[in-house]
């Protein structure tokens, strides 16, 4: 039943070559799996990062100043300052180590920007330790929750966007 | 009619039941979408946007299933040299590419209001796009090679090479720090969201199975027609 | 500028509903377009098969 | 024993290809001229901002080498097909891997020479200083060339015998090359211009991993590609 229909004319020439190669193939596959495993569990997670966290950026010292980087982390609760007149947005980004970088953003923030949200900003760290951001992105977590009793999502937006100091 | 069949190494498929399957699959998709829109409340952060995920995520999962099928059928072809496996791999690749494109477009539509950007060059988004391009190349390879034997062997190799990238796409959010969030688990999902997601995942799965089957039937019928035409022209000798 | 201020006061610039409707519309267009493509391929290959069989009967 | 035979055969194939290339001369010179032209065009595209040009130099030089190298990959089979030499070459037992290895070596030399010219040109055009860590740069260039050539030689075996080979080879090759190119460009960037988000060592080891994987995969799969 499983005999190949439409048998190619070159199968006979092909079969002995593959028989002879067999131990080589086993070795090759072992190396292949090893390379894949190393790719996965080796220390490669450090270089394919989309953004740096505050402690990583600060650890770079001078080499991290005034070069284009992406910085990501959580907006520190209560740190958002919004000046309506000059439309100037400032906030602090923090990470699990508690390091903080102050960010000044000039781009239009996405509608989900709020306290304690994950964010990624693109820009440069100035020598004044203020991070000048040219674009602001939200990093959403993998949590999706319905609003609690009495909360309306639409209303939530309004309360979220009530920025202290505005 | 029956004597003509002998001129081809395989029979033309008959597809009565699959047509019914297709109707049911689309009916189930409509039902699943209606139910999930009805039972799932808006998300507390993104409101109604969360409903986009009911197509985006199932499309991404089923894209993985399609590419897995490509790998399986390609290997089977190289092993058993049955031309039908090649046609099945091709059908799965085409549907996989379709779902891959859908995943990308829906992700962009979701990302613009959520992240604030249509596109970001992070590992997940980039690897998904690269995957799409690899299989676009696979389909182009099939289109540009006419000789069936050669086409089958080459595309089996190209399909295998392409499919090994899928684990990288899937795991990229875990291995590397990306803008894209990691996979949700039942713990991070509201129960009504998890239920809706599953309903829709099966809906897209059934649609994908139907599409692959139909595409395969079309390709197989075409090959049978070619065999029989050749046999007719050569006067009945059955050469592939 | 006014857009930005409006938005920061809590009114999303574009309602999310447009994105959701757009996403569902795109998906259905893609799925139906592929359905028609496959069906037409199937029709064409069946016609080719019928043609081949009639040619086989003629000779 | 058999392995040594294959090695001799592979070397013979490589030598034959390179000799043909050297005799014709026009081939390599034209491709090198194309690579330099691409670099100049990058210079125009990036505008008068010399800072931006310098930052983009690593990407530009690898892409120039890639675009020019693609022409060489297709041609290495085209020469056999035009002369009708491919069929006899495949008649020998175990000839396929040797043929692939030979083509691989010839293309590697070709691309390496191309890269030398491209890098020298971009050092001048883009005002990039030779870094003190130039041996590391050399390693990155060698590893990047291996990755480029491995997949290029493999896919060219298919594309060069299809219709529309000019389109098909880049279409198949470029997406598969993304990880190799990305690693090579980032490592080069880290060495040439520095960068807060790159670390040359990590990218180089990524490059090694991909080279190993692709070398093994292509050698395993080449039988299926060339016999049909």
Model description:
The complex is a heterotetramer of chains A (166), B (240), C (59) and D (228). Helix content of chain B is 75%, strand content 0%. With 240 residues, chain B is mainly alpha-helical. Chain B has one domain (46-234). Residues 1-5 of chain B have low confidence and may be disordered. Chain C has helices at 2-8, 16-58. Mean pLDDT of chain C is 77; it is low at 1-13. Chain D is mainly α and 228 residues long. Chain D has one domain (2-227). Helix content of chain D is 86%, strand content 0%. Chain D has eight helices and no strands. Classes of the chains: A alpha+beta (166), B mainly alpha (240), C mainly alpha (59), D mainly alpha (228). Chains in contact: A-B, A-C, A-D, B-C, B-D. The interface between A and B is large, with 41 and 44 residues.
Brief overview, please?
With 240 residues, chain B is mainly α.
Give the terminus-to-terminus CA distance of chain C.
78 Å
Tally of extended strands of chain D? Answer: 0
Largest sheet of chain C: none
Largest sheet features of chain D: none
The sequence of SSEs of chain C as H and E is: HH
- Looking at the structure, what is the overall shape of chain C? rod-shaped
Total domains of chain D: 1
Radius of gyration of CA atoms of chain D, rounded to a whole number: 18 Å
Secondary structure: helix percent of chain D? over 70%
DSSP, total strands of chain C: 0
Shape of chain D: globular
Topology of this structure?
The complex is a heterotetramer of chains A (166), B (240), C (59) and D (228).
Chain A: H1 11-41, H2 54-59, E1 68-75, E2 81-83, E3 88-94, E4 100-105, E5 118-125, E6 130-139, H3 153-161
Chain C: H1 2-8, H2 16-58
Chain D: H1 2-24, H2 26-45, H3 50-83, H4 86-91, H5 95-125, H6 134-159, H7 165-192, H8 200-227
Helix pairs in contact in D: 1-5, 2-3, 2-5, 3-5, 3-6, 3-7, 5-6, 5-8, 6-7, 6-8, 7-8
């Amino acid at each position: 039943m499983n005999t190949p229909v439409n048998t190619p004319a070159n199968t006979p020439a092909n079969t002995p070559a593959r028989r002879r190669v067999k131990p080589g193939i086993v070795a090759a596959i072992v190396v292949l799996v090893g390379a894949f495993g190393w790719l996965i569990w080796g220390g490669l997670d450090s270089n394919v990062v989309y953004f740096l966290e505050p402690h990583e950026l600060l650890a770079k010292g001078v080499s991290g100043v005034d070069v284009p980087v992406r910085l990501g982390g959580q907006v520190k609760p209560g740190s958002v300052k919004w000046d309506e007149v000059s439309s100037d947005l400032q906030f602090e980004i923090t990470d699990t180590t508690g390091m903080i970088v102050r960010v000044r953003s000039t781009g239009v923030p996405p509608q989900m920007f709020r306290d304690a949200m994950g964010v990624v900003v693109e820009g440069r760290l100035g020598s004044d330790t203020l991070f000048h951001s040219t674009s602001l992105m939200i990093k959403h977590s993998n949590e999706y929750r319905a609003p609690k009793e009495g909360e309306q999502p639409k209303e939530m937006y309004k309360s979220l966007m009530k920025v202290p100091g505005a | 009619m029956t004597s003509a069949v002998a001129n081809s190494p395989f029979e033309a498929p008959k597809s009565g039941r699959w047509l019914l399957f297709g109707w049911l699959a689309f009916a189930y998709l409509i039902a699943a979408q209606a139910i999930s829109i009805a039972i799932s409340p808006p998300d507390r952060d993104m409101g109604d946007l969360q409903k986009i995920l009911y197509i985006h995520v199932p499309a991404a999962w089923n894209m993985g299933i399609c590419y897995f099928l490509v790998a399986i059928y390609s290997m089977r072809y190289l092993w058993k040299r049955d031309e039908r496996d090649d046609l099945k791999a091709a059908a799965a690749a085409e549907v996989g590419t379709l779902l891959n494109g859908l995943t990308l477009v829906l992700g962009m539509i979701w990302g613009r209001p959520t992240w604030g950007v249509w596109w970001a060059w992070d590992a997940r988004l980039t690897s998904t796009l690269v995957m799409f391009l690899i299989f676009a190349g696979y389909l182009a390879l099939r289109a540009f090679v006419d000789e069936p034997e050669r086409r089958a062997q080459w595309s089996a190799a190209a399909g295998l090479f392409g499919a090994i990238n899928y684990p990288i796409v899937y795991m990229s959010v875990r291995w590397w720090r990306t803008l894209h969030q990691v996979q949700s688990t039942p713990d991070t999902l509201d129960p009504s969201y998890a239920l809706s997601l599953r309903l829709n995942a099966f809906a897209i799965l059934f649609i994908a199975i139907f599409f692959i089957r139909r595409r395969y039937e079309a390709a197989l019928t075409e090959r049978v027609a070619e065999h029989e035409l050749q046999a007719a022209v050569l006067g009945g000798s059955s050469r592939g | 500028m006014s857009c930005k201020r409006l938005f920061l006061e809590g009114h999303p610039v574009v309602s999310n509903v447009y994105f959701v409707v757009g996403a569902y519309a795109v998906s259905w267009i893609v799925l139906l377009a592929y359905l028609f493509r496959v069906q037409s391929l199937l029709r064409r290959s069946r016609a080719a098969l019928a043609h081949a069989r009639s040619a086989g009967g003629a000779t | 024993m058999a392995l040594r035979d294959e090695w001799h055969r592979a070397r013979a194939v490589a030598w034959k290809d390179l000799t043909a290339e050297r005799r014709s001369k026009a081939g390599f010179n034209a491709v090198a001229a194309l690579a330099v032209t691409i670099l100049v065009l990058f210079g125009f595209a990036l505008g008068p901002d010399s800072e931006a040009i310098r930052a983009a130099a690593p990407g530009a030089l690898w892409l120039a080498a890639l675009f020019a190298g693609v022409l060489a990959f297709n041609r290495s089979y085209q020469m056999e097909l035009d002369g009708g030499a491919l069929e006899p070459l495949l008649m020998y037992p175990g000839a396929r891997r040797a043929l692939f290895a030979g083509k691989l070596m010839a293309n590697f030399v070709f691309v390496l020479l191309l890269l030398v010219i491209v890098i020298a040109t971009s050092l001048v055009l883009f005002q990039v200083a030779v870094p003190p860590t130039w041996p590391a740069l050399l390693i990155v260039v060698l590893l990047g060339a291996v990755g480029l050539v491995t997949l290029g030689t493999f896919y060219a075996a298919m594309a060069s015998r299809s219709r529309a080979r000019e389109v098909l080879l880049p279409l198949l090759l470029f997406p598969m090359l993304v990880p190799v190119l990305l690693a090579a460009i980032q490592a080069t960037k880290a060495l040439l211009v520095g960068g807060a988000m790159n670390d040359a060592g990590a990218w180089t080891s990524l490059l090694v991993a991909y080279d190993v994987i692709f070398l093994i995969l292509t050698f395993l799969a080449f039988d299926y590609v060339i016999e049909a």
